[in-house]
Amino acid sequence: MSSFNLSSQKWKNRVLLVFAPSVDNHSYQQQMQLLQQKSGFADRDLVLVQVLATDKSYANGHLIDESSAAKLRDRFRVDKENFRVILVGKDGGVKRSDTTPVRATTIFEQIDAMPMRQQEMQERSL
Predict the structure, then answer these.
(1) Quick one: which H or E segment has residue 113?
(2) Domains in the chain and their CATH numbers?
(3) For the whole model, what pTM was predicted?
């Protein structure tokens, strides 16, 4: 089990935070289904962080400790009973916040429209 610090991701990765009360939460289950197409995550330097109140929390599939999950909850002011999806850009700013499940394609389109991502795509195609 490791700790997860959002500031360590700054300028390296975008972070998609999925907050939910538990794995049994309907919105959480829907969201995880919508994100099954993981292929676009690596291309976009996108880290998936699942922050669950009553179950284990994960960052890119790696177990993270309770205090890391609690800090994320506090920072984004998400109660343990609430479902929320938050996209954090490489600059550390919140780019979107949803209270209902979001399609991966919707998130990818938003990321692809960002100036930093446009630049990355140009550099990678050279």
Answers:
(1) none
(2) 11-125 (3.40.30.10)
(3) 0.94
